[in-house]
Design a protein that fits this description.
heterodimer; A: Rossmann fold; Rossmann fold; Aminopeptidase; 22 helices; 17 strands; B: mainly alpha; Non-ribosomal Peptide Synthetase Peptidyl Carrier Protein, Chain A; globular
């Protein structure tokens, strides 16, 4: 059976079938619980239901707190035992232009209007401040859609008395705040409503009969947008785009039509449309999405297609390349393996519904949008899905594709050495292993929440929690960065240990799978032991909690020389390591800067 | 469209939205007779009817609905 929620989003289907879809999705295994508070400036019931569907679809089971109607401000600003008890992990403030207290009056002067603007902003700043101080969790905040009416006509846009002008100013100041504040994320309903169509958005039947600030039909899109931000905050956005070639990246079939007859570049409207799609994909790559090819083709033909002078994408843009006649579901597994990423971080794009079906039925974790056969719709389907939502761009993102492409070269090199350590030394690795620092907080949070395989406890932390741990003295924290002769692997490992007397308890140990079997775990442990010694710690305890993804770390502590001290029925294990007076370093292949 | 055709289509909508295949609608059925037919699900039902029958309700019409029969009549007045 196909996943009940599919991209592109079909609002009629979702609104009508939400209860049965919910029932099906709740039966999926391994759901992750998250407490989400929705604080509304208008009715939120349908927003909550739709948000639940989009989160469930991606394996997150939300537990909701819903404010009373239009109590978003009071609920946060005044003592609220219910919300305290609920202890939200994410707060969503669902406000919109109906919540603007007052617009400028025509007799007011510019200074009055400035005051009015700042009084609107202060209300929201107070909410964000209070969340940061008291609830210490991320806030997702709607900005404002354009007004329903413009009494000043076109002048409304640029005269300070205009509502359109006022909303523009307000949205700009929200954007400035979101750049400045670490835990504030904007849900851009200004764009969303424009795309949906303001006339449809403002269907007043829903406002006057039920106080919905927007058309019911817009709510699935709104909810998907919020869900995408939540997934991005939790590090669960998709990472890799797997693409078919024929009739997906160009018009025609390279094996049949030949290089001169496929449609790409210039020469026809179809060719231009495919070029535009390729340009969009290149934009995704530049912001850190890994690209892969999965095509039924002879490899030589497939590569030839990318040599077409009109093709924007070249063979080297792809970190994995599978062109053969095996089932695509198998090839996609191999792509995930070769890149060392989870199947659930893939999106698969193919024009052929039969191929979509094969991939989806074998690998339900892969997101497989229904692309249809109209190339003109492709960018929109992908762009509006939110599957690749990101909360920030870092220099690491820009280089990410090359991390993975470089790995392919490393694998080739590995085959030339008989002794594995010789191979490791040939990589000329240099690592930086240090306590958490402020500039890396975002990346640290990202990797902790993304990493599923090399992860002994699978504990998840928000950025605020990480910030808190960093500043406390009873924790030892370490991050590891790794560079080798092929390039910078970025920040790829994290350890958090809690000090209790002369014991250190390892709460978390994660490592990105792109640096597996490089000796990096040894380098991390050496540094952990050294830091522990300086704090008079004599014993380190390690914990392994099995999930269906972290099997690779079940033997990690044993490998590091720990002794097993406890084993539960669920397979959870506890390990003990007494730090010897003279600790012999395990790492011999990486040059480490502590 | 006949009264029965409208009733069948609307019944299907109720069953989908309330996720209850046992729902049967009569002309005099009211919100009290159907579990889950509250003001929040009512708006989803109206939306689904608008889409399914390709019609548009206005505020005053929505406010006057008292029982299922009113809904069938209203739909009938808006469909050919």
């Amino acid at each position: 059976m196909r996943a009940p929620i599919i991209y592109p989003i079909d609002p009629q289907y979702l609104l009508r079938k939400k209860k049965s879809i919910r029932r099906d999705l709740l039966q999926r295994p391994g759901l992750l619980d998250k407490r989400i508070a929705i604080l509304g400036g208008s009715t939120t019931s349908e927003v909550k239901d739709m948000l639940e569907l989009f989160l469930l679809w991606d394996g997150i089971r939300p537990v909701f707190y819903e404010s009373l109607y239009n109590k978003y401000y009071e609920d946060i600003l005044f003592p609220n035992p219910d919300l305290d008890k609920f202890s939200p992990e994410i707060i969503y403030i669902h406000t919109s232009s109906v919540n603007i207290c007052r617009f400028p009056l025509i007799h007011e002067n510019e200074a009055d209007i400035k005051t009015l603007l700042s009084s609107e902003l202060i209300r929201f700043q107070a909410i964000w401040d209070r969340v940061a101080e008291h609830y210490r969790c991320p806030v997702i905040q709607n900005n404002f859609e354009w007004p329903y009416s413009r009494a000043l006509g076109n002048l409304d846009n640029y005269d300070v008395h205009g509502r359109t002008c006022f909303i523009s100013e307000l949205n700009l100041s929200f954007a400035t705040e979101a750049r400045r504040r670490q835990n504030l994320y904007l849900n851009d309903i200004n764009y969303l409503s424009a795309w949906f169509g303001l006339e449809r958005w403002y269907d007043k039947l829903y406002w006057y009969s039920y106080k919905y600030a927007m058309n019911l039909e817009a709510i699935p899109f709104l909810a998907n947008s919020v869900a995408s931000i939540i997934k991005a905050i939790l590090g669960r956005s998709r990472k890799c785009l797997v693409l078919d070639l024929d009739n997906t990246l160009w018009g025609g079939i390279i094996g049949d039509d030949g290089l001169n007859y496929i449609r790409i570049g210039i020469g026809s409207s179809e060719a231009e449309a495919y070029s535009e799609f390729q340009k969009y994909i290149r934009e995704l790559k530049e912001r850190g999405i890994i690209l892969a090819v999965c095509s039924k083709n002879d490899e030589t033909n497939a590569l030839e297609g990318l040599l077409h002078p009109g093709s924007i994408l070249k063979a080297e843009d792809f970190s994995a390349f599978m062109a053969n006649w095996d089932p695509k579901s198998e090839n996609i597994c191999k792509i995930a393996q070769s890149l060392n990423i989870g199947i659930d971080s893939l999106v698969f794009i193919d024009d052929n519904p039969a191929e979509q079906e094969i991939v989806f039925s074998h690998l339900p974790e892969v997101a497989v949008p229904e692309m249809g056969n109209n190339i003109l719709a492709y960018i929109n389907i992908l762009d509006k899905s939110g599957l690749f939502e990101t909360i920030s761009v870092s220099p690491d993102d820009h280089q990410r594709a090359s991390f993975y492409s470089d790995n392919v070269v490393r694998q080739r090199l590995e085959k030339q050495f008989d002794d594995y350590n010789d191979f490791l030394r040939s990589l000329q690795m240099k690592a930086e292993v240090k306590p958490f620092s402020l500039i890396y907080l975002e990346r640290i949070t990202q990797i902790i929440n993304k990493c599923n395989q090399f992860n002994v406890t699978t504990r998840r932390y928000t950025m605020t929690e990480i910030e808190n741990i960093r500043s406390r003295e009873n924790f030892i924290t370490l991050y590891g960065r790794l560079v080798d002769k092929f390039g910078d692997n970025g920040l790829i490992s994290i350890v958090i240990g809690e000090i209790r007397g002369n014991e250190l308890h390892i709460e978390l140990w994660v490592m990105s799978c792109r640096v597996l079997k490089r000796g990096m775990e040894d380098a991390m442990f050496d540094q952990l032991a050294a830091t522990a010694q300086t704090q008079s710690i004599t014993t380190i305890y390690g914990y392994y909690y099995p999930t269906n993804k972290n099997g690779m770390t079940s033997g990690l502590f044993e490998q590091m020389g720990f002794v097993n001290v406890e084993r539960s029925d669920t397979g959870a294990t506890k390990w003990r390591f007494d730090i010897p007076k003279v600790y012999n370093k395990r790492n011999c292949c990486i040059e480490v800067t502590p | 469209m006949t009264h029965d055709e409208i009733k069948n289509k609307v019944t299907k909508i109720f069953r989908d939205i309330l996720d209850d295949e046992t729902i049967v609608l009569h002309d005099n059925t009211t919100a009290n007779d159907i579990e889950g037919w509250d003001s929040l699900s009512h708006i989803s039902i109206l939306y689904a009817i608008e889409k399914d029958f390709n019609i548009k309700f206005i505020l005053i019409e929505v406010k006057q609905l008292k029982k299922a029969g009113d809904l069938f009549d209203l739909i009938k007045s808006k469909t050919p």
